[in-house]
Amino acid sequence: MRTARPPVGRAYFFFILILALALPALGAEKSRIKAEDYVIDAEIIPKTHHLTAHAKVKFTTLDDVNFATFELNNGLRPTRVVDDKGKVLTAERISQDNAVRVVFPAGLTKGTTTTLTFDYEGNLSSADDSPVEGLKLAYIGEDATYLLYPGRWFPVTNYGLDRFTSTINVTAPAGTVLIGSGAPSTAARNAGGKTTATFTWQKPSFPGTIIAGPFFDTPNGNVHVYLRNDKLKLGAAYADQAAKALEFFASIYGPMPGTRLNLIELPDDTVPAWWAPEIAAVATRDITDKTNYRLLADTIAHQWWGVSVSATAKDDLWLVDGGARDSEMRFVQNVAGEAAFEDATKDMAVGALAYDTVPLGSITKLDVFSPQFQSLVTDKGGMIFHMLRWVIGEAAYNKTMDEFMGRFAGKPAKVGDLQSIAEKNYGDKLTAFFLSVG
To answer: Is the four-CA dihedral 101, 103, 108, 113 of positive or negative sign?
Structure first.
């Protein structure tokens, strides 16, 4: 027997009105290729901020094409691009899009799977050539090196949507700690006095983030905390808190899609937090004596919301960041109680209304790192999950989350997929609810 619907309050209708202020925007231009796999050999030289790389990109055409466009950081210069037969192809740099366009003289038919090999190099020392204006997403230095996936330090297609596998070999000066997705196979030193590590990730997702530097590892079971000298004393506390978050999320979503979690200190001159398979990175300023358990929980929750289940299209991206934000709220409720949960939810509601004239449907036109986009997909997305939990009830919501995670583990999902599962467990249509957020 289905439980009675809770009364829908005035605040709920007000929030739905805010979400529905305008019709959804038209979708972004459809991508014509899809990346499948990368094999990357890269060497970093921190002293000169230099990267030299050789990347084999396996991709499938989604239409008949005579060229393909790959996003690549403007600080990096392609020196050679060849096809799977070894033929050198013309590669045109498109600086305004941080991209490289490769021409196929004979064209490629729809459904073709082939490989291009890129040789490229350059310096990554500032935000001047960043794909996101003013935001440093790829940096090589002696203090720390971070090559984040959004930094486009390798040729990227359909950012944030194309799931792919990868094998990444990284060479660095001797003594450098190298961290990536997948347990590293490391040769401590080769004949040249360098450190080399291989990171292999064979479940289609979003690997491609490499962090390196003078880190110290504090292990706690399958959690490894990588901090630098000034923060090293906090390693045990953060390892313990991360282990608690992993245990909680595994209890409601199932096992993490990996064998370990690398919690890493990220310099303050980039994003506040970042995630990748088996990676949760948070800025130095947020690693304090008082553990920032909310930021930690949100970042770790992306192992399920993002690494495991991702978005089908850009207008579905609120499922990823909103799902992680709601997971943060649930973790707060679990470890700190109802009062803390209510306070955290109020914070999320305030963030959701920060851009109250910007409809959720407009995210296809926004840059993913803009304040508007972040407010929409994270806080407004989180509020949608929170309201869904309230509307259909705790039991139906828990069953919906469990079923959604199980059905789409390792796959992209769209908003309609969540709606259909929620309706099945609720026992009634939720068209009005999802229409306002579509």
So the answer is: negative
Which pLDDT value is given to residue 405?
A: 97
Supply 150's token pair: 């959004």
Give the whole-angstrom CA distance, residue 42 versus residue 44.
7
Asked if residue 206 lies in contact with residue 163, where contact means CB atoms within 8 angstroms, the answer is: yes
Look at residues 404, 416, 224, 394 and name the one whose alpha carbon lies nearest to residue 304: 404
**How would you class 302 by CB atoms within 10 Å of its CB: exposed for 0-12, middle for 13-18, buried for 19 or more?**
buried
Residue 438, number of CB atoms within 10 A of its CB: 18
Checking if the pLDDT of 183 tops 80, the result is no
Q: Which domains does the chain have, with CATH numbers?
A: 10-28+313-435 (1.10.390.10), 32-212 (2.60.40.1730), 215-310 (1.10.390.10)
Q: Which long-range contacts (CB under 8 A, 24 or more apart) does 393-398 make?
A: 393/3, 393/6, 393/426, 395/3, 396/3, 396/422, 396/425, 396/426, 396/427, 397/422, 397/425, 398/252
Residue 235 C-beta-side C-alpha neighbours within 13 Å: 18
Alpha carbon distance 230, 90 (integer Å): 48
Buried (b) or exposed (e) across 370-405, using 16+ Cβ within 10 A? eeebbbbbbbbbbbbbbbbbebbbeebbebbbeebb
CB atoms within 10 A of CB 346: 10
What stretch of H or E contains 164?
strand 164-173
Do the Cβ atoms of 127 and 136 come closer than 8 Å? yes
> Closest Cα partner for 117 from 86, 158, 95, 152?
86
Q: For residues 84 and 372, what is the distance between their CA atoms, to the nearest angstrom?
A: 42
Q: pLDDT tens digits for 43-99?
A: 999 999 999 999 999 999 999 999 999 999 999 999 999 999 999 999 999 999 999
